[in-house]
Design goal:
Number of strands: 8
Largest sheet: 5 strands, mixed
Oligomer: single chain
Shape: elongated
Strand content: 5-15%
Helix content: under 10%
Number of helices: 3
Order of helices and strands: HEEEHEEEEEH
Distance between the termini: 112 Å
Structural class: little secondary structure
Length: 419
């Protein structure tokens, strides 16, 4: 009888163990510095430290106790394919020593709404496979790959971004990334793109033709320090709701031209450092700009040393501007539409208007304004391509006038109006 009772008890215990509910958890083993994700009922038998998955906007426990700093490998066990996490927020954040993630196919993201800072700071990670991610329900991708400075590429071809509202700093600091395909991105609901591509210093091109920016309010520092970006097509951009364009093209010194003709800046209040150190630009057309609401223009064109012409239109105004310190500092090649040359004593908003000549000097040129053929600004140096010897500084005769200079056509009447 005693033996029978013992058998019944053991059987009951085994049934209870077998019936224990499976749960999603992570397990860290210090011996191999590996963080493994499971979905089973064997948590109590695992060696090492086990953690609950985080929920909402909370940090995961392996971040809170600083275990993340020691992780070199992440593994998704096949059992985890049955888990349905609702957030991957901060999962690999600040894992600077993380070198590999395996079993990513077992991470089912169909219920995930937050990918906030998911891989942020994974500076040793050279590749990551997110090609199988289901992002249909994701609303937040803030800083998702920020400072993944060793990633050279990432396959985002299957990303469904239809519900994403935040792409701020998404690729910020991906300094080794030589290519980035975001042509499939649906950005209709995105409201913030500030610092999205900041410090992507190895990118040479970027296709943004699919971008719908009608809901975006913040584009500050969006392309800052994209040093090798040689061209940028923003013809699809709708900027009607943007209020912040500060530092947008900061130090994009490989750009030789920018087409901003479709920019609606009626709601913009901040343009500080917008074109700072864009030393590759020789001319810039901001004639579509309405700056009536802008209050900050400090160092807006600072260091654009090869910029000779800024075209402006009737919407340009500095009446609301309260901050314009060093707006044109070191724009040493700049010449206004009627010949006003750069003056180191006037680098704030004082000359930030269409040139009115000696009576009202300015650094801007009316969009259809033209100089008298042969008048190329200062006459203190010689350009061999300009037979009239009316060159302006080290850059020589401005390209748009050179043909007329070479023909020696000084007989056409000068007009400050339309051509």
């Amino acid at each position: 009888l005693l033996l029978f009772r013992l058998v019944v008890l053991v059987t009951a215990m085994m049934c209870a163990l077998g019936a224990a509910a499976a749960e999603a958890y992570a397990n860290y083993t210090s011996s191999n510095t590996t963080l493994t994700f499971y979905y089973d009922n064997q948590r109590s038998s695992r060696t090492g430290t086990t953690y609950n998955l985080n929920t909402g906007t909370n940090y995961p426990a392996w971040y809170s106790d600083s275990t993340n700093a020691n992780v070199t490998k992440v593994v998704f066990n096949s059992s985890f394919s049955n888990a349905r996490p609702t957030t991957t927020r901060y999962w690999f954040d600040a894992m600077a020593n993380l070198q590999s993630i395996t079993g990513m196919q077992y991470l089912n993201t169909s219920s995930v709404r937050e990918m906030f800072a998911m891989f942020r700071g994974c500076s040793s990670l050279t590749s990551v496979d997110v090609s199988g991610f289901n992002t249909a329900n994701v609303t937040n991708m803030y800083a998702m790959f920020r400072n993944c400075s060793s990633l050279t590429s990432v396959d985002l071809g299957n990303f469904n971004t239809a519900n994403v509202t935040d792409m701020c700093a998404m690729f910020y600091g991906c300094s080794a990334m030589t290519s980035l395909n975001v042509s499939n991105f649906n950005t209709a609901k995105v409201t913030t793109m500030n610092t999205m591509f900041r410090d992507c210093s190895s990118l040479t091109s970027l296709d943004l033709s699919s971008f719908n920016t009608a809901s975006v309010t913040n584009m500050g520092w969006m392309f800052m320090s994209c040093y090798n970006l040689a061209s940028l097509d923003m013809s699809s951009f709708n900027t009607a709701n943007v209020t912040n364009m500060s530092g947008m093209f900061y130090a994009c010194n490989k750009l030789t031209s920018l087409d901003l003709s479709n920019f609606n800046t009626a709601k913009v209040t901040n343009m500080i450092q917008m074109f700072y150190a864009c030393s590759g630009l020789t001319s810039l057309d901001v004639s579509s700009f309405n700056t009536a609401s802008v209050t900050s223009m400090g160092t807006m064109f600072y260091g654009c040393r090869n910029l000779t012409t800024i075209y402006a239109g009737s919407g340009w105004s500095t009446n609301a501007v309260t901050s314009s310190t060093d707006m044109f500092k070191n724009c040493t090649s700049l010449v206004g539409g009627q010949g006003t040359t750069y003056d180191a004593n006037h680098v704030d908003k004082t000359y930030a208007h269409i040139d009115g000549g000696t009576s009202n000097p300015g650094y801007f040129t009316a969009r259809h304004q033209r100089r008298r053929p042969g008048e190329c600004g200062r006459r203190d140096s010689v350009d061999p391509d300009c037979p009239q010897q009316h060159a302006r500084g080290p850059l020589g005769c401005r390209p748009e006038w050179r043909q007329q200079c070479q023909r020696g056509r000084r007989d056409r009447p000068y007009s400050a109006g339309t051509e």
